[in-house]
Structure formats: structure tokens, C-alpha cells
Design goal:
The structure holds 2 protein chains of 2 kinds. By secondary structure, chain A is of the alpha/beta class. Chain A has 12 helices and 12 strands. Chain B has a two-stranded antiparallel sheet with strand order 1-2. Chain B is flat. Classes of the chains: A alpha/beta, B mainly alpha.
Chain lengths: 356, 331
């Protein structure tokens, strides 16, 4: 376990480039950079796609991916958020688009002795109270009120050890946005890529654990009794750590699964949720979707628009492969949610416009 | 006495005839020397240029405020509705604090190792030990970070709890919340192990410069090993040891990844002295934490933080150079 964790930390967080063996008949070799959340998905898809070779995907973060795409050092970028780019360098004068390629749930992890996977129930308000230090112990009425009677008696009078991502990340941005939208009276500050900077209390609660990356966070929650944390399901799915069941806006208790997250994301294909010209999906975390897990995020591929370059054809093929083949077959087992339904159709339509 | 003037030897005049090879060699050396200077100046210039928008907007407050708020990513002069506030005092002081802690631990350790190598350990074992110490210096810092995270923290928490329990009446060992995982003390421990080889190597070289006749004389006077070390070796080597410690501080200030894994960053408040509290700062860790998702203005603020770190580290290294050189002069 330690060895695998070590390997994944080293490979995901700090070895910048992921090299993939070149198959015999390689198409154009593509270079990408950006979202660390989508790293596993993009790399797996690159390996599985017989027609594309991803020579290098650098999971340095969405911000880095956007600037690397904007100045033309990569063939495609990947970002967990949509931002306006000013194209320079090799891309000067070109145009770009965002294509939703994959999504996934953010799981709330916990380590309370005696409480098994899925038994702990939380809602957005309580999560926001925990992360802003308003709820300090596990047997606080705000938490016990949500539980089944079997779990209620097991919650100890122990301080909650709050684990969070110390480095800026798209996960923290979506997590804070989720709290902001669903519990605005508690989480009074706007979304932030660093939760410590965007905390309405001005600081993280006493006894917090700032984790260097997703893997370090999972490891910290695992080794610290009475800890709580949040991570992308794809980073936590193999850790055998308990995930909390979260109340959605329909009042249902939903576990963080690929299917429940896909259901939520698919609800944003309408005109109010999806901007067909930029490709941006406006996630309304308060939306009532039956059976959906609302705390979910989307990763976009950043691609050229109307490009005549040879690479654009390969990027188009790869984006379509991720949406059509790789997502449905691989996303769930890796802890991601595939793009489905009308949203997928619309994403494919944008992908169609990559090549001139 | 006038005759002595006649006896005075005439100074020989040396004519330097530079061959082509000499000239080429000289040219290479001059270019090499200039390049290192130009690189330093270039880095400073680039940092200063990139940091300029932030330094212009925030002035000296950038170094005395405690905040890292990005806002809407625009400056007030650009019509921001939600202006950012950047101030790196907690990070700057945190860097200094963990450097002090690490040197406080590494100095006695490194000097002790150097003394043992030079005076105590049989010559046959010295080679092996030296290689070991040099190997510690060669371990990549991410390895120290992971080792600190997985191995040191679980033990360090127990030591911290013990220190806190026994010595809480001393303010520096007091904490607000008894969580010891990511304190300046923990970061200082990891750094101490990283810089001990530097202190040991520099000290060993200084100790081997102590003239043997001084030691022989002290032995002839009946000095014990301890009194010789205390009264002859250490006073002679003082400047060099301090110089080694300053080099260590330079390394400790700039260390990034290892510290980021074992220190919790608090941007909004300065942890002045509670070394066991899970709260601290480090400029280098700030940069690694914020760079991935930074907006253009935030990147400029990170460059300004880098500039501050660059200046502090440069000062530490310059002080080290001065101290080491002045100690060589004193014979």
C-alpha cells in the first residue's frame, strides 16, 4: 500500500511528464498539459486509443494547462474551469474552444473508528460548518441530527481534524463553490482554488491538516483518527477509505459514484447550463436532479477552433475518442463520470469544429 | 649605514609573455566569471520586472501584511470590484523561523560530526563516514519530503507532544491546538537533516586548517582532548563554523518540496514563536502551493515573494562568504 501510494504521489504530483511508449503506427504525437484531476483519465485514454499517441501529459494544474495552451507550447490543454484566454506565441491570432470531456464526484472522506463506508451522512450546510470551524466535534447536534440512530450513538466527543488541499486545485475550487451555492449563509466567501485563502473564518479550523496533494490528503485522513477530508473519487477510489453519503437538493442520500455524478452533469445540457459557443458548463450545485450527486466537477479539453494544422485533426480524433469510447468504457472504473446524454452530443458538436 | 643602500637587492621585473593558449584560457575564465554574474543579475532583473505590478500597487506593505486574497484578479487602479490583498509576512517570517530551528539542530550535530571525523574516529573509518555524510547531501529533497511525511511525522508528533507536555511553561513550546503534525518544528527537523552535511563538511575543512603545532603545544601543556577542542580548535574555527551555518540557512530558506509536505501554511496570521503549533509559513512552499492555478496578477505576487526570498537568501550567503573568508585571515 505504502509503495503504491508513494509511486502514485511521485508520478502524479511531481514527475511532470508522463511518457507513454510509442506504438508501431503512430499518428501525430500529441502534447497536453493541465488538470491533475483528469490525469489518470487522459493518460489511460491515450494508452487505449489505437490512433493517437500522447507523448506527454503534464498534470501541473488547470491554470498551467490554460497558459500552456494559450502560448502554444501544447497541442491541447485540460482545465477544471473555463477562463478567457489571450492567445500568444504559436497560437497568436487563432481561436479556441472548451470541450467537456470527463467529470467526476468529489468524495468526502472520513476516519471515525466504528463507522463504515457510507454510514456517515452529511449535507452541504454541515460540511460548510465543519470547514469554517463552526462545528468542532463529531457529536455536535448539527451532525448527529442527520444520522440514522445506529450511527448517532457512535459519534464520539472528539475534535474534528479537517484535512484540505494546501496547494491550489480545481477540486478545492469546486468544493468551495458547492458550499458557497448550497450554504451561502455559512460559507460567505466566494469560491477559491485554495480553501485556506477562501475560508470565511479567515483561517482553517484548529487542528487542520494541509495536504500537499490529493494522495497526501487521502493518506493523512487514513492515518489520522477523527479526520475528514475531500478528494476526487478517482484519487480515493482504491484507498478503501469510507466515503460520506451526501444529501442532494432532492433530499435524497446519495453516495459518490460515477453513475450518480454523471446523472448530475448530464442535467446541464440545456440553454441555461451549456454555452454552445464557449463550451462552458455552468454547474448549478443547487439543482434538483433525482438520484444525482451534486458535488461533481467537469474537466474540459482546451482545443483549437477552425484550425488548419495537422495536429488539430489528431486532437479532434482524440477528444471524440474520449467522449465516445474511453468515457463509457473506462471512466467508471477509474472513479470518473462519463459525459452522457445531450451534453455529450453538444460536446461532440464542438469537437467537430476543431478542424477547419 | 649608507652602505646598506647599496646592498639592497633590485626588484626583479617579470615580463609576462602570454602565449595564445594562455590568452584563450584567460578568456575562458573571464567569460565564465562574468556569466555567473550575468545570470545572477538576469534572474534578479527578471524577478524584479515580473514583480513590479505588485510591488508598485502594494509597496512595502507587501512584506508586512498577512493575507493572500486573490479577489477578482484586478488591481484597484484597474477598476477592481473585489481587489486582491497580498502580504507575505507570515511566509517570510515562517521561512526565517524554520531556518533558525533547522540550524539550531543542525549546527551542534554537524560540528559534532566534524569534530569526531577530525579528532576522534580512527582514520580507517573516516573514509566510510565521510562518504555517508556526502550521500545524505545528495538525496533529492522530494525524498526527504516523503520520508518526513510518512516516517518522521508519526514519530515527531510524539516528541512534540512530549515537549509540549513537559515544557509548556516556556512560550515557544505552547500550542493553541494540540495537533503537532505540520509545525515549524517538524519542518525544521526535516531541514536539519538536509543541512547537517553542509555544516559538517564546512566545519571539517575548517578544523583540518587548525595548525598542528597549536594542538601539539596544548597537548604538551597537559590539555585533555576536550579542553583542546574547547580552547584551541573551536575559537580558531569560529568564523568558519558560523559560515557553514549560514550556508545551511541559505539552503533551508530555499527548500521547497520537503517543507511543503510537512508544514501547514497559514496565510492570514503570523506564527511568531509557537514552534510546535501546526501553523507556519515558507515563501518557497507558498510558491509551489499557489502557482498551479494562479491568475496573472497572482503570478506577479508570487514573483514578488520569490524576489523577497532571493534577496534574503543572497544576504545569508553573502554573510557566509564574508565570515568564512575573515576566519581564514585570522591565523
Amino acid at each position: 500500500m505504502a509503495k503504491r501510494l508513494l509511486t502514485s504521489i511521485v508520478s502524479l504530483g511531481f514527475v511532470a511528464s508522463v511518457l507513454i511508449a510509442t506504438p508501431a503506427q503512430a499518428a501525430d504525437n500529441l502534447k497536453g498539459a493541465g488538470s491533475s484531476f483528469a490525469n489518470k483519465f487522459i493518460v489511460s485514454c491515450g494508452l487505449a486509443d489505437p490512433n493517437t499517441t500522447i507523448t506527454n501529459y503534464n498534470p501541473a494544474g488547470s491554470g498551467t494547462g490554460r497558459s500552456a495552451f494559450a502560448n502554444g507550447t501544447v497541442d491541447f490543454g485540460a482545465s477544471d474551469a473555463v477562463a478567457t484566454l489571450s492567445l500568444t506565441g504559436a497560437r497568436n491570432g487563432g481561436s479556441y474552444a472548451y470541450v467537456p470531456v470527463v467529470g467526476g464526484p468529489i468524495a468526502v472522506l472520513y476516519n471515525i473508528p466504528g463507522i463504515a463506508n457510507g454510514q456517515l451522512r452529511l449535507d452541504a450546510t454541515t460540511i460548510a460548518k465543519i470547514y469554517s470551524g463552526k462545528v468542532k466535534t463529531w457529536n455536535d447536534p448539527a451532525i448527529t441530527a442527520l444520522q440514522t440512530s445506529a450511527v448517532k450513538s457512535k459519534l464520539p466527543n472528539k475534535p474534528i481534524r479537517v484535512a484540505y488541499r494546501a496547494a491550489s486545485s480545481g477540486t478545492s475550487e469546486n468544493f468551495t463553490d458547492y458550499m458557497r451555492q448550497n450554504a451561502p449563509s455559512v460559507w460567505t466567501k466566494a469560491k477559491n482554488t485554495t480553501i485556506a485563502s477562501g475560508n470565511p473564518a479567515g483561517r482553517m479550523p484548529g487542528g487542520s491538516i494541509g495536504a500537499a496533494n490529493s494522495q497526501a490528503l487521502v493518506s493523512s485522513v487514513k492515518s489520522t483518527s477523527y479526520a475528514i477530508g475531500y478528494a476526487d473519487l478517482s484519487d480515493a477510489v482504491t484507498s478503501k477509505i469510507p466515503f460520506a453519503t451526501i444529501k442532494n437538493q432532492n433530499g435524497e442520500w446519495i453516495a459518490p459514484t460515477s453513475a450518480a455524478s454523471a446523472k448530475f452533469l448530464a442535467a446541464f445540457s440545456g440553454a441555461s447550463g451549456f454555452n454552445a459557443s464557449t463550451g462552458a458548463v455552468t454547474l448549478n450545485f443547487t439543482k434538483k436532479v433525482p438520484g444525482a450527486y451534486n458535488m461533481s466537477l467537469i474537466t474540459y479539453a482546451i482545443v483549437d477552433k477552425n484550425s488548419s494544422s495537422a495536429k488539430a485533426a489528431s486532437v479532434e480524433a482524440f477528444v471524440k475518442y474520449m467522449l465516445n469510447t474511453c468515457g463509457p468504457s473506462k471512466a467508471a472504473s477509474l472513479g470518473y463520470a462519463p459525459i452522457t446524454g445531450t451534453l455529450k452530443t453538444k460536446a461532440l458538436a464542438i469537437a467537430e469544429g476543431i478542424r477547419q | 649605514m649608507t652602505s646598506s643602500l647599496d646592498l639592497e637587492p633590485k626588484p626583479a621585473v617579470i615580463h609576462i609573455v602570454r602565449t595564445r593558449g594562455d590568452r584563450i584560457f584567460r578568456g575562458i575564465l573571464i567569460v565564465g566569471g562574468l556569466i555567473s554574474f550575468l545570470v545572477l543579475a538576469g534572474i534578479f532583473g527578471y524577478l524584479a520586472q515580473s514583480a513590479a505590478p505588485i510591488l508598485k500597487a502594494f509597496g512595502f506593505q507587501f512584506f508586512t501584511d498577512s493575507s493572500w486574497y486573490v479577489g477578482d484578479g484586478l488591481l484597484p487602479s484597474e477598476g477592481s470590484m473585489d481587489p486582491p490583498i497580498f502580504g507575505i509576512l507570515p511566509m517570510l517570517w515562517g521561512s526565517v523561523l524554520i531556518a533558525i530551528i533547522s540550524v539550531g539542530i543542525a549546527l551542534p550535530l554537524g560540528v559534532g560530526i566534524a569534530l569526531s571525523i577530525v579528532y576522534l574516529i580512527p582514520k580507517r573509518a573516516v573514509f566510510g563516514l565521510t562518504v555517508f555524510i556526502d550521500l545524505i547531501a545528495a538525496i533529492p529533497s522530494i525524498i526527504f519530503g516523503l520520508w518526513g511525511f510518512f516516517v518522521l511525522i508519526p514519530h515527531g508528533v510524539l516528541w512534540s507532544a512530549w515537549l509540549n507536555e513537559k515544557l509548556a511553561f516556556i512560550p515557544i513550546f505552547n500550542v493553541e491546538f494540540p495537533a503537532f503534525e505540520q509545525s515549524p518544528f517538524m519542518a525544521g527537523l526535516v531541514l536539519a537533516i538536509m543541512i547537517t552535511p553542509i555544516v559538517a563538511v564546512v566545519s571539517r575543512q575548517i578544523f583540518s586548517l587548525v595548525p598542528p603545532e597549536l594542538i601539539n603545544a596544548a597537548q604538551a601543556l597537559g590539555g585533555s582532548r576536550w579542553t583542546i577542542i574547547r580552547d584551541v580548535v573551536l575559537p580558531f574555527s569560529k568564523g568558519g563554523i558560523v559560515g557553514g551555518a549560514m550556508l545551511g540557512i541559505g539552503r533551508a530558506l530555499g527548500e521547497t518540496v520537503a517543507v511543503f509536505f510537512v508544514l501547514q501554511l497559514f496565510f492570514d496570521e503570523v506564527n511568531w514563536y509557537r514552534i510546535l503549533e501546526s501553523s507556519g509559513g515558507s515563501v518557497a512552499s507558498l510558491i509551489i502551493a499557489k502557482f498551479g492555478e494562479a491568475s496573472p496578477l497572482e503570478v506577479s505576487a508570487l514573483f514578488a515573494a520569490g524576489l523577497a526570498l532571493f534577496v534574503v537568501t543572497l544576504l545569508a550567503n553573502a554573510a557566509a562568504a564574508v565570515l568564512v573568508n575573515s576566519s581564514k585571515g585570522k591565523k
